[in-house]
Design brief:
Elements: H1 17-38, E1 41-42, H2 44-47, E2 49-56, H3 62-71, E3 78-82, E4 84-92, H4 105-119, E5 126-134, H5 136-164, H6 167-191, E6 194-195, H7 197-227, H8 233-265, H9 268-290, H10 292-298, H11 303-306, H12 310-318
Parallel strand pairs: 1-6
Antiparallel strand pairs: 2-4, 2-5, 3-4
Length: 320
């Protein structure tokens, strides 16, 4: 039977631990430099701007609406349906044609009317339901709330990992997860692709995927340390990575194919999230294989670090 990844692989993965850690560290440093140097291309969620709710007589083509807005000077418009297919919401950043920076209800109303006139066609009239200005203060509050959400998720993961694993495992898992998140953020700083709250949600999902992948490998490491008593730590780690290699790659491949489908067919509103997840899945898979266990070896993990505690020993003795 054909298998994409055989179950009995025996690759000497830890042989490449030094170049792998050097490359991972270099990429993290580069990402940390890029983020403050180039910054992020924040979307309307963070910058404020004009929001117009429009109602069409017939369901419009969102891509055509977006293209017509861009062709008339409304740069980087966010166009989404809400409610029914005939109702759409258009978000425009400050600085776009006809979009001022002042919080003026009259200016917002004029912008909504101009958009409706631009998008209206014979047989498909457009009505402005609402046109409001979202001030930069609201955008600042959203940015703050987004950063706080990211902070609390990180703290929650740190607490979970600390109680789930011994400290060396916790440190390695935290560094590996931080590596994945930083590289995803560095990618958006490098490419200047739009960064909005949906992308932030994608970054948070990458964190969950990354830590789950690392925990699967580390659980196998703990099991092997408890059952393999006559081999050294390096061999235990090598065997653990090989034993989980099939699961890691196949799971990542299925998840990647799903996200690619979302990126291709989900429309522009979901492209950013799908892009963050694609980068995160690739980077997270590589870090689970080439970064997490090499970090454990670098931290000089030993059998003594992973020996069951008295309570665990008692539970093992009670098992049939």
């Amino acid at each position: 039977m054909f298998r994409l990844i055989p179950f009995d692989t025996n690759y000497d993965i830890l042989r490449w631990r030094k170049p792998a850690l050097v490359i991972a560290f270099a990429l993290m440093v580069a990402a940390f430099v890029l983020m403050p140097l180039k910054g992020f291309n924040f979307a309307l969620d963070f910058t404020g701007g004009t929001v117009a709710e429009l109602q069409f007589e017939q369901a419009p083509d969102l891509e055509d609406v977006r293209a017509r807005l861009e062709a008339n000077g409304y740069s980087n418009p966010v166009v989404q349906t809400f409610g029914s297919a005939t109702d759409i919401i258009v978000r425009l950043q400050p600085g776009a044609a006809g979009v001022g920076d002042a919080a003026s209800a009259e200016a917002a109303s004029a912008t909504g009317g101009a958009i409706a006139e631009l998008l209206g066609e014979p047989g498909n009239a457009v009505t402005v339901v609402r046109s409001d200005f979202v001030g930069p203060q609201v955008g600042k509050e959203l940015a703050t709330n987004g950063v706080l959400a990211l902070f609390f998720v990180v703290v929650g993961f740190l607490v979970y990992i600390t109680f789930r694993f011994e400290w060396k495992f916790a440190v390695a898992a935290i560094i590996a997860t931080l590596h994945d998140i930083v590289l995803v953020l560095g990618w958006f700083a490098l490419t200047q692709h739009e960064f909005d709250l949906i992308v932030l949600a994608g970054v948070l999902s990458v964190m969950g995927y990354s830590i789950n992948d690392t925990i699967v490998v580390f659980d196998r490491v703990r099991e092997n340390f408890r059952t393999l008593h006559k081999i050294d730590a390096r061999e235990v780690l090598n065997r653990s990575v090989n034993q989980t290699l099939s699961r890691t790659i196949i799971t990542s491949l299925v998840a990647l194919l799903t996200v690619i489908a979302l990126y291709v067919n989900g429309g522009s509103s979901l492209e950013g999230m799908a892009e963050a997840q694609m980068i995160g899945i690739v980077v997270g898979t590589l870090s689970s294989i080439f970064v997490a266990c090499p970090l454990l070896l670098w931290l000089n993990v030993t059998k003594q670090d992973l020996l069951p505690k008295a309570k665990d020993l008692a539970e093992l003795e009670r098992r049939p």
